[in-house]
């Protein structure tokens, strides 16, 4: 009987070390799937637009990965009353492994329009956001900036200076563009018009979005049927009978395009305002990004 207990204790000790090692392996293995998942949804969308250029793209933001390994071990003994009395030790073990990613689908119309432009440009279309769309986007982006100390101080100094430089509120309003104005980022009609600090940040973000879209170039992936996919293809996506693949010389372009898609897909976030003096008063919601 003592030998049975010793066997159980030894098995439990070994199981503890084995579990931690397996958990480490599973965590690394799950983490390495993230780039593959990002590439795959981009390639599948490229195949979708190759088959139907007017399609609506899809995208899910991956977040909150979980890896869990649970080992259980139980032991006992069966007894034959004989005679003679005999003991039959029993050891039962099991392992449960769980690996998952939380997913948040992109459902914001603005983000979907930007993604549509990105995928169409990757196929060679000249699409770019219209001025009206950019102004509407600017009004959405104003709620995405953190109300931090730097911005608050800059805004206070800006309005203090502008208040002294103009005679009354009407003149002040006529010479300042804010994010509440209908047109924020179009070129001001008069040279004396200035943008508020928040408006400047919004316009800078819009310029970055336009620049990222303008840099998207076609020609780095291939389109065809399943039998056209070569053995040297590194990544393959499909939509129906249409296949898209990337060879080794196009992987760098795929990576850059995927990063652009990730930026566009996490552009508009649900926000919460946190009352925390002296710190950033902004936190993203649970839509990813």
- DSSP strand (E) fraction? 15-25%
Q: Span from first to last CA?
A: 58 Å
Instruction: Name the helix and strand elements from N-terminus to C-terminus, one letter apiece.
Output: HEEHHHHEEHEEEHEE
User: Roughly how many Å is the radius of gyration?
Assistant: 29 Å
| Low-pLDDT stretches | 272-289
**What structural category do the secondary elements indicate?**
alpha+beta
Largest sheet, in brief, is: 3 strands, antiparallel
Number-wise, the strands total 9
Mean pLDDT: 78
Shape: flat
Q: State the helix count.
A: 7
Helix content: 40-55%
Question: What number of domains?
Answer: 2
- Biggest sheet strand order reads 5-7-6
Looking at this protein, list some descriptive labels:
289 residues, two-stranded antiparallel sheet, 45% helix, disordered C terminus, 7 helices, flat, alpha+beta, three-stranded antiparallel sheet
């Amino acid at each position: 009987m003592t030998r049975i207990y010793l066997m159980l204790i030894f098995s439990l000790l070994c199981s503890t070390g084995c579990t931690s090692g397996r958990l480490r392996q599973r965590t690394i293995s799950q983490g390495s799937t993230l780039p593959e998942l990002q590439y795959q949804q981009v390639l599948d969308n490229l195949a979708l637009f190759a088959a139907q250029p007017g399609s609506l793209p899809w995208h899910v933001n991956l977040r909150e990965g979980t890896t869990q390994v649970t080992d259980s071990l139980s032991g006992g003994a069966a007894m034959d009353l004989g005679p003679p009395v005999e003991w039959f030790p029993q050891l039962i073990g099991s392992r449960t492994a769980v690996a998952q990613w939380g997913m948040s689908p992109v459902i914001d119309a603005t983000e979907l329009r930007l993604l549509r432009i990105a995928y169409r440009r990757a196929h060679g279309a000249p699409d770019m956001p219209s001025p009206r769309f950019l102004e509407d986007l600017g009004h959405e982006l104003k709620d995405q900036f953190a109300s931090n100390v730097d911005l608050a101080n800059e805004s206070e100094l800006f309005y203090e200076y502008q208040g002294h430089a103009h005679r009354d509120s009407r003149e002040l309003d006529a010479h300042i563009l804010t994010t509440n104005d209908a047109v924020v980022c179009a070129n001001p009609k008069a040279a004396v018009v200035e943008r508020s600090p928040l408006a400047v940040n919004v316009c800078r973000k819009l310029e970055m979005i336009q620049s990222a879209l303008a840099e998207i170039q076609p020609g780095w992936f291939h389109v065809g049927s399943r039998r056209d996919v070569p053995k040297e293809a590194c990544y393959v996506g499909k939509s129906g009978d249409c296949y898209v693949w990337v060879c080794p010389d196009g992987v760098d372009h795929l990576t850059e395009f995927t990063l652009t898609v990730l930026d566009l897909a996490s552009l508009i976030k649900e926000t919460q305002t946190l009352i925390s003096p002296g710190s950033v008063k902004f936190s993203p919601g649970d839509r990813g990004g």
